[in-house]
């Protein structure tokens, strides 16, 4: 079973993909593969950010405010 990557590792991987594409040294087929993988990685990272945001904030509907509970996760 593959260990889950840290968000920072995913970001570095995405940055490396951009460098690869910007280099112009890969052909069309490989570029399409890199873009497809990058798109999937971006969606995964976006979900992770949204999940984290949900963990850090609770909407108090009665007071119409958002309570920051980030200290609860330290």
Identify the notable features of this structure and list them briefly.
74 residues, mainly alpha, two-stranded antiparallel ribbon, 62% helix
Walk me through the structure.
- By secondary structure, this protein is mainly alpha-helical.
- It has one domain.
- 62% of the residues lie in helices and 11% in strands.
- The chain has helices at 7-23, 28-56, and strands at 57-60, 65-68.
- Strands 1-2 form a two-stranded antiparallel ribbon.
- The longest helix has 29 residues, at 28-56.
- It is elongated and about 55 Å long.
- The model has no long low-confidence stretch (mean pLDDT 84).
In short:
The chain is mainly α. Helices cover 62% and strands 11% of the residues.
Write out the strand line-up for the largest beta sheet, numbering strands in chain order: 1-2
Number of strands: 2
- What proportion strand? 5-15%
Counting DSSP H or I runs of 4 or more residues, the number of helices is: 2
Q: Uncertain runs with pLDDT below 50, 5 residues or more?
A: none
- Integer-rounded radius of gyration: 18 Å
Structural class by sheet pairing and helices = mainly alpha
Distance between the termini: 27 Å
Q: What characteristic shape results from the CA principal axes?
A: elongated
Average predicted local confidence, pLDDT:
84
* Count of all domains: 1
Main sheet makeup: 2 strands, antiparallel
The percent range for helix content is: 55-70%
Question: Helix and strand layout, with pairings?
Answer:
Blueprint: H1 7-23, H2 28-56, E1 57-60, E2 65-68
Antiparallel strand pairs: 1-2
Helix pairs in contact: 1-2
